[in-house]
Amino acid sequence: EAQVTQNPRYLITVTGKKLTVTCSQNMNHEYMSWYRQDPGLGLRQIYYSMNVEVTDKGDVPEGYKVSRKEKRNFPLILESPSPNQTSLYFCASSFGDGSTEAFFGQGTRLTVV
Amino acid sequence: LAKTTQPISMDSYEGQEVNITCSHNNIATNDYITWYQQFPSQGPRFIIQGYKTKVTNEVASLFIPADRKSSTLSLPRVSLSDTAVYYCLVGDRVNAGNMLTFGGGTRLMVKP
């Protein structure tokens, strides 16, 4: 089954404790990206990657890191999480042919206390 | 990327056809129009994409007039499970694939 898998689905952590949210896709997509969704602010892009070893900032990259060492994986790293990073996070992937049909993961609800 | 304007919310009843209109006055020649559906606490799901005239798939139809300054997503005979937020996105296919810009969306409530 074609899918984007995020882990964990839920995470509660403390300020300053490094964490990684994993994202994996099985569709051989070139493009992958991370979004956060907050009430009243909608979906905002954090980082995206056009292919292996190619990443770029989205609209709200501060406080986040990403890496794309393999085509299928695109982890989101929070080196020192803060309470303002409490949010619902989505990973997405799509083909590199300019398609606007993106596939989204089920989401990771992160709470930083 | 072209800015889009959609109604904040709409109500409908089961079995009715629902039309959600999106305004995109500054759409560029290379821009495509894409619609997504999102249920609470789930990731958005692609519904349909079009460039001009009419596109239909098993889920919805998309109507785009000749001037392309607006588009209408049509959901035939909605059911309770169609209650969701619907997003209209506009962007060229080269860039939109890696940076989908979501606006506020339209919150559709389907009532029994």
Helix content of chain B: under 10%
Shape of chain A: globular
Category from helices, strands and their pairing of chain B = mainly beta
Radius of gyration of chain B: 13 Å
Residues in helices of chain A, as a percent range: under 10%
Q: What percentage of the residues of chain A does DSSP assign to strands (E)?
A: over 45%
Order of strands in the sheet with most strands of chain B:
1-9-8-3-4
Can you give me a brief rundown of this structure?
The complex is a heterodimer of chains A (113) and B (112). Chain A is mainly β and 113 residues long. Chain A contains no helices and 11 strands.
Map the helices and strands.
The complex is a heterodimer of chains A (113) and B (112).
Chain A: E1 4-7, E2 10-13, E3 19-25, E4 31-38, E5 42-51, E6 54-57, E7 65-66, E8 76-78, E9 87-94, E10 103-104, E11 108-112
Parallel strand pairs in A: 2-11
Antiparallel strand pairs in A: 1-3, 3-8, 4-5, 4-9, 5-6, 7-8, 9-10, 9-11
Chain B: E1 9-13, E2 18-23, E3 31-38, E4 45-50, E5 53-56, E6 61-64, E7 70-75, E8 84-92, H1 93-96, E9 106-111
Parallel strand pairs in B: 1-9
Antiparallel strand pairs in B: 2-7, 3-4, 3-8, 5-6, 6-7, 8-9
